[in-house]
Amino acid sequence: MLIDAHQHFWRVGENGFSWPTPDLATIHRDFGPADLAAVAAPLGLAGCVLVQSQPDDRDTDWLLELAADEPLVLGVVGWVDLASPAAPDRIAALSRNPKLRGLRPMLQSLDDDAWIAAPRLDPALDAMIAHGLSLDGLVLTRHLPHLLALARRRPELAIVIDHGAKPPIAAGDHDGAWARGIQALAALPQVFCKLSGLLTEAAPGQGGEALSPYVAHLVAAFGPGRLMWGSDWPVLNLAGDYADWLALARKLSGLTDAADLAALFGGTCRRFYRI
């Protein structure tokens, strides 16, 4: 049962929309459930996790409203300003929606790399834990030490690293700080990872095989029991298409056991997000 652990919907000019910008013409248009079904249903997609794309309450409210009547959406990862004094009440209110599964601060866009590890976020994190919500970490290599500090300090908080922490594929660096940071986080049992978003980190012309050592490291570090496949569609369209990325991920994973493949392409996502 194929489950996409990471995809987006948006409407240009609505719900706090600020990205993608017009220069990204391929994806600067509306995307919704019918668009996803058109590319993924023929491949056997059974459901997806819908992830926020705008750091705005209006986006989260819209995603939850859309998801309520959309059987393809099995869970939603929303956004809350975790530093706001109002965050605990907002989290409590959102948690009453049966499809909300987690929250994602957009860490890659913040000026402070250590923002997520600040104790001032504890009231919001306490609320997330109390209401059974997980944290999606939208991070780059430079954020990994700070995400590790948070994970060590809050072992009760379930965390999933989005897009394998966007490894430096274009630079060809697969043995440096990224690999060490991933290995350290993988040592903590509450930390999971998404095999997603890698194609857009490669340089033009590198080809899919350039991803091989990075995928191998993620599979070795997390195993299929804590690694979940996601498309990052429609951002994926900047570098490839849905069917090709699904096939490439299956190939590069190196997995042949049916149970392992079932975990990577659906089971682990269902378990992590309590679907």
TrEMBL record:
List residues of the Amidohydrolase-related domain: 3-275
Record InterPro entries: Amidohydro-rel (IPR006680), Metal_Hydrolase (IPR032466), Metallo-dep_Lactonases (IPR052350)
Keyword Amino-acid biosynthesis (UniProt): no
Q: Which domain of life is it from?
A: Bacteria
EC number(s) for this protein?
3.1.1.-
Instruction: Provide the family line.
Output: Belongs to the metallo-dependent hydrolases superfamily.
Protein name, UniProt field: L-fuconolactonase
Q: Which organism is it from?
A: Caulobacter rhizosphaerae
